[in-house]
Amino acid sequence: xxxLCQRRPKIHDRQCQPPVASGRYQNASEVLRAGLRxxxxxxxxxxxxxxxxxxxxxxxxxxLEAGRTRTFSGDEFATYLSERAEQAxxxxxxx
Length: 95
What we know:
Elements: H1 10-21, H2 28-65, H3 74-94
């Protein structure tokens, strides 16, 4: 288990002052806990993205092994990528 120090460096105190002064947080400990929650959420999103990426790689590998592939010329591939990008943008915008 990681040992946390009881005293905060002065820079942390300076960074905690504005959120506490705004009234959003009661004290520096609340600010630091909120920061740690943000780190935890970011880590969770990262792990999810990596799992999704691994699943996409595995699906692509399965398609390759099963012979489900397409051959493109350079221009065809550029067009294909542009169309896929547009689809992804529309999908993201619609959700």
